[in-house]
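Re: the 308-residue chain
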Amino acid sequence: MDLSWDFYRTFLSVLQEGSLSAAARELGLTQPTVGRHVDAMETALGYPLFVRSPHGLLPTDAALALKPYADTLSATSAALLRAASSQRDMVSGTVRISASEVIGIEVLPPILADLHEAYPALTIELSASDTVEDLLRQEADIAVRMVAPAQDALIARHLGVIPISFHAHRRYIERRGMPRALTDLADHSLIGYDRETAAIRAIIARSPELPAASFALKADSNLAQLAAIRAGFGIGVCQNGLAARDPDLLPVLSGLFEMKLDTWLVMHENLKTAPRCRVTFDALARGLRDYIRGVPPEANDPSVEHRD
């Protein structure tokens, strides 16, 4: 059975979008073309992939079983296009960077702006998500991670540790006062997590001195928590380096509570000779180390290659 990749791409888009019309808009195709792709794939496979319902197209169990393989094809195709766009002797083409929400949105933009100024032919794709993308499957070229990578085929550079601790906006402290002990937190509005993930359980295990949290605001997103701190909602945890940039964000319980995020920069070893990846990796390493050390972003010079 020899099916065109276009059929798998269309199938994945219909699966993600939930209708032929939405998939057509996403792919830049007509709705009849999308329908023909799905029909051809169902005919070749010999079983239905979708069931029509008042709420759109519902995937069958068979379609859901095929989804991981279609995801792999999509990631491989994107990686192939990024590699093909790179030329051997010049810094050009596309580099996909994966980082957490906070790092991707709060820390990387000035680093990437300087990188683009130095290498204008370089196109940057930034995936700012707390979901860890798989470098071995080429879902990204370079990743900023807060845990040491376990795969042998990756180049990893330890950049240091990012301290995080309690902070609150000046308006909140003026309103509610400054807590002097961890037990005082029981009388304050706390900002925290909505669901207890494995990472959060690890933090709790490493910090037995923390009182049981009763949050006034719960959010899965670390960016949402940071926004709430900046808005004066209450006391929450954020990176010390980010708080230091805003004179209105005050440290709370300094010296009594602090956690450290190990920070790594990771790249597949097959990309180490690609100029686009090498200069991006070096610029990110230098910029993130400067951030950890408290050096202002404007001090970076991405055109100067960094070496450990």
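The CA atoms of residues 102 and 223 lie 6 Å apart.
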